[in-house]
Write a structure and sequence with these properties.
This protein is an alpha+beta fold. The chain is built from three helices and six strands; from the N terminus they run E-H-H-E-E-E-E-E-H. The longest helix has 19 residues.
């Protein structure tokens, strides 16, 4: 299985006294991983930004499964699944590189809509050609 990896570092503000990463930080890292993924893998990503077809999140889950300390390096490991005509899911596991523990498992389902017609739209072709490689 092919994965797309991004790295983050834990700051004091990111963790609770019980050494759990705050949910809002995991959600932020999910978004940043997704953006890095498309920038790195879709040569026409700026064309997508300028088109009337927009991507939006319909479902997001975050399961905190482990802990981290200040200055830990966290690797975000992104894969895709459930690719349909107008939607797909991104799964991102966050692994603490210090102890090799998965600290969070996440899923984000995205759907595409044409902002001009207000109707669902197909996943853009160049994007679909990329996401099928990360299943």
């Amino acid at each position: 299985m092919k994965t797309f990896n991004t790295e983050f570092y834990v700051y004091f503000e990111d963790i609770s006294p019980s050494e759990k990463i705050h949910l809002e930080k995991i959600a932020e890292w999910m978004s940043m991983s997704r953006e890095q993924y498309f920038k790195a893998t879709c040569p026409e990503h700026l064309k997508f930004v300028e088109s009337p077809v927009k991507m939006f999140t319909t479902n997001m889950t975050i399961l905190i499964t482990g802990s981290s300390r200040w200055a830990d390096k966290i690797k975000a490991i992104l894969t895709t699944s459930n690719i349909k005509k107008i939607s797909f899911e991104m799964h991102i596991n966050f692994r603490n590189e210090r102890n090799n523990e998965i600290i969070a498992k996440t899923m984000q389902k995205v759907v595409f809509i044409n902002s001009e017609t207000k109707k669902f739209a197909d996943i853009p072709y160049d994007m679909k050609e990329v996401i099928i490689n990360y299943v």
